[in-house]
Design brief:
The structure holds two protein chains of two kinds. Chain A is 34% helix and 15% strand. Chain A has helices spanning 8-26, 38-51, 70-82, 92-99, 112-126, 191-201, 264-273, 278-282, 292-298, and strands at 30-33, 60-64, 87-91, 130-132, 149-152, 180-183, 212-219, 222-225, 239-244, 257-258. In chain A, helix 2 (38-51) links the parallel strand 1 and strand 2 (60-64). In chain A, helix 1 (8-26) packs across helix 2 (38-51), helix 4 crosses helix 5 and helix 6 (191-201) packs antiparallel against helix 7 (264-273). By secondary structure, chain B is an alpha+beta fold. Chain B folds into three domains: 2-213, 3-Layer(aba) Sandwich (Rossmann fold); 220-303, Translation factors (Elongation Factor Tu (Ef-tu), domain 3), CATH 2.40.30; 309-412, Translation factors (Elongation Factor Tu (Ef-tu), domain 3). Chain B contains seven helices and 23 strands. Chain B has helices at 16-26, 32-42, 60-65, 95-102, 120-131, 151-168, 201-207; strands at residues 2-9, 72-77, 81-87, 107-113, 136-142, 173-177, 220-221, 225-227, 239-246, 248-250, 254-258, 262-271, 274-276, 278-280, 284-289, 300-303, 309-320, 331-336, 339-352, 359-360, 371-384, 395-400, 406-412. In chain B, the strands form four sheets. In chain B, strands 7, 8, 9, 11, 12, 13, 15 and 16 form an eight-stranded antiparallel beta sheet that branches. Chain B has a six-stranded mixed beta sheet with strand order 2-3-1-4-5-6, sandwiched between helices. In chain B, strands 17-21-19-18-22-23 form a six-stranded antiparallel β-barrel. In chain B, a hairpin with a 3-residue loop joins strand 11 (254-258) and strand 12 (262-271). Chain B is globular, with a radius of gyration of 24 Å. Classes of the chains: A alpha/beta, B alpha+beta. Chains A and B meet through helix 1 and helix 2 of A and helix 2, strand 2, strand 3, helix 4 and strand 9 of B.
């Protein structure tokens, strides 16, 4: 093999850096939507590399559902300082109060749908014209069809039938006033690519990605942590299990997996061995309907 | 491990979705819960088999109509390669999606139904492959089970397609007889098709040599973004960030900035914040120059001894991708990598029949999915190479000034 050769992770990295730079150059007010999970942590790492030795030329925006893992929030604050980035936090809690929205009920109340309201308000507040998100096309069927530059109307809506052709590596970010573009720089990465890259680049992650002891209850075959948001019923058996998280979302709708994997090598080995998809294993909210993501995207979701 | 991007093209019932489903399924890239969802949606079928095509049908609107309306991307990995599939629909009206999917592909799988042979769609897809210069072509002759695995049927299709390939100048064409439904010659070599002595499809995809698809001889770089930290320690730092389009740049190289034509040399090279001695395609790099020259986004930095074309009068092939027809005299934005310039389509010479490649006169406007030869004038010069020699530096798009849509794929001549 010639020395002028990039392996697949380097190729993916190159493509993502190219996209980050296009966003910084084409838009007046971009923002990176930071969820606290490994995908957005990877994005921050890529953005840092794209603009080094300068700082990341856009803020990190966190739409805080109020149901986050404390470890993820702590990590978020540490990371923003570490890379010297501006951090904007907007709370779903506040939107619920201002707009008099109805809180979802039930044992695992997901504020996932409500995030869209806070996101759209935040876009309006800061006049963001491009929002960089960490969605990957391997995650879900609707995402497999979305472009890297995805134009949204002023309601944040995605129209799958009117997508712009995206040719070669040329990204057309021209929009009308009021519209914005969702940009997905890690579209072509898979879950395993992300993990392998995290290992290769030695990227820090919140501790909950690695095995730790936690009190959980079992719900339809999934393990959900006991927290101030999820309380056991009389029928529940509270178990103490060694678990880790494969994705980090809300405490109310992210399930843990039983695991003894304490470091990256062990986590990667488990992921290679596992035969269940990331969303299927850990997202309680995605199973509702087969077209759940398609509907949310059409309504302005990430 | 490296990366191969390929596109699959076929007509509506050629079994394209089944083929992709089969590749994912047999290479163990389908996970249990996805399979369960699949089985759930196949429950109503009478024969009890799993419909692999459903794995790739994404949106509800599509499932209801049983069609594919847009390019979908699929991922799978074997111990040898990571693969990205652009799954483009076969309908006539979605040629623009095929161009989208094909523009980044190093290989195309053209699916042919063994019962139908080479049809109009096969020809159309192959013409697009030849226009876009996709380096490798696999003709997968599918549904061999429905022609009793006949070698004669296969051979006749090979003869027909070879004629098309010759006419289009397609090189590196490989023919594989398959049955996507039964898994013949997909992952494992088919026992029934014993007269075929080539590789099964997956093995071919794993081994096809793509190392030479990237040009390392001619150095091309375009400035995407200027990095100016303006901090105390980095007060005078001025780095030109961009992707190495092709070739190799070394520290000390004498370079020319185009279109201005000023000469200087490379003082420092960085990749991801780390200083390096040389950079090569397709790395994302930062170049620093010895002299303080006024450079902005879209300017090219090339080596002094080897320069691309610099012109504002462009001969182009245009693939029209918009519902609104093109009229000669219309103004657009032309985007060539990161360079955005105003442009006017001065004249339209002829239309290329995408079934026969014959040149035809243009009457009225240029409609969706038509390919025309045209002349474009830009407000400031473009630094490019002819697409035929140099895909990455010879491609551009046209953007409608009023709708902001991407309306044409531009192949610079």
């Amino acid at each position: 093999m010639s020395k002028y050769h990039l392996d697949y992770l380097e190729q993916l990295e190159t493509e993502s850096i190219h996209i980050f730079r296009e966003v910084a150059a084409q838009f007046e007010r971009p923002a990176l939507l930071f969820s606290g999970g490994k995908d957005s942590i990877t994005m921050v790492h890529l953005a840092k590399k794209a603009f080094a030795p300068g700082k990341i030329p856009f803020p990190l925006v966190h739409i805080d559902t109020g149901h986050n893992f404390p470890e993820a929030l702590e990590f978020r604050d540490w990371l923003a300082k570490e890379v010297n980035a501006t951090l904007v936090v907007r709370k779903v809690e506040d939107t619920i109060k201002q707009k008099n929205l109805t809180e979802p009920k039930g044992k695992f109340p997901s504020r996932n749908w409500l995030q869209t309201y806070t996101l759209l308000d935040t876009i309006e507040e800061f006049k963001f014209d491009a929002c960089i998100g960490g969605a990957r096309r391997d995650e879900e069927k609707a995402r497999a069809k979305e472009r890297i530059f995805s134009v949204r109307d002023e309601f944040g809506q995605w129209n799958p039938k009117l997508q712009r052709p995206e040719l070669w590596n040329i990204y057309n970010g021209r929009i009308h006033k009021g519209e914005n573009v969702r940009v997905f720089p890690i579209s072509n990465w898979t879950e395993l690519d992300i993990w392998n890259y995290i290992r290769k680049e030695n990227i820090d992650l919140p501790s909950i990605y690695f095995a730790h002891e936690r009190q959980v209850i079992e719900h339809e075959g999934q393990l959900v942590a006991i927290s101030e948001f999820v309380q056991p019923d009389a029928n529940d058996v509270v178990l103490t299990r060694q678990v880790r998280y494969r994705t980090v979302g809300d405490m109310t709708c992210t399930a843990a997996v039983e695991s003894a994997a304490a470091n990256l090598d062990e986590v990667i080995n488990e992921i290679i061995a596992t035969r269940i998809s990331e969303r299927g294993e850990t997202r309680i909210d995605d199973k509702v309907t087969e077209a759940a993501m398609e509907d949310r995207k059409k309504n302005g979701y990430f | 491990m490296d990366l191969l991007r390929f596109i699959t093209a076929g007509s509506v019932d050629d079994g394209k979705s089944t083929l992709i489903g089969r590749l994912l399924y047999d290479s163990k890239n389908i996970l249990i819960d996805q399979l369960e969802a699949l089985e759930k949606s196949t429950k109503n079928r009478t024969d009890g088999s799993v419909d692999l095509a459903l794995l790739t049908d994404g949106l509800r609107a599509e499932r209801e109509q049983g069609i594919t309306i847009d390019v979908a991307y699929r991922y799978f990995t074997t111990p040898k390669r990571k693969f990205i599939i652009a799954d483009a629909p076969g309908h006539v009206q979605y040629t623009r999606n095929m161009i989208t999917g094909a523009s980044n592909a190093s290989l195309i799988i053209v699916l042919v139904d063994a019962r139908q042979g080479v049809v109009e769609q096969t020809r159309r897809h192959s013409i697009i492959a030849s226009l876009l210069k996709i380096p490798h072509v696999v003709v997968a002759i599918n549904k061999m089970d429905l022609v009793e695995y006949s070698q004669d049927v296969f051979n006749n299709i090979v003869i027909d397609y070879a004629e098309v390939a010759k006419q289009l100048g397609l090189k590196n064409v490989t023919y594989i007889p398959i049955s996507a439904l039964n898994g013949d010659n997909i992952v494992d070599k088919s026992e029934i098709i014993d007269w075929y002595d080539g590789k099964p499809l997956l093995e071919f995809l794993e081994e096809v040599d793509t190392a030479h698809d990237i040009d390392l001889d001619n150095a091309r770089f375009q400035v995407q973004f200027v990095i100016r930290p303006q901090t105390e320690e980095l007060h005078d730092y001025r780095g030109y960030a961009g992707k190495i389009i092709s070739g190799i740049y070394k520290k000390g190289d004498k370079v020319k900035v185009l279109p201005a034509g000023l000469e200087t040399s490379i003082s420092k090279l960085e990749v991801g914040g780390r200083e390096v001695e040389e950079v090569f395609a397709p790395q994302a790099a930062v170049i620093q120059l010895a002299d303080d020259i006024d450079i902005s986004r879209g300017d090219a930095i090339v080596k002094t001894e080897d320069t691309p074309v610099v012109s504002n009068e462009l001969e182009v092939l245009l693939c029209w991708l918009d519902d609104k027809p093109l009229q000669a005299g219309n103004k657009y934005y032309l985007q060539h990598n990161s360079r955005l310039v105003r442009a006017v389509v001065k004249s339209i010479e002829y239309k290329l029949d995408v079934n026969t490649l014959q040149q035809q006169p243009v009457e009225g406007g240029v409609k969706l999915n038509e390919v025309v030869k045209a002349t474009i004038k830009t407000a400031s010069p473009l630094v490019y190479d002819p697409y035929d020699q140099f895909v990455v530096n010879g491609s551009a798009i046209l953007v409608d000034e009023t709708s902001n849509s991407t309306v044409a794929a531009v192949l610079l001549q």
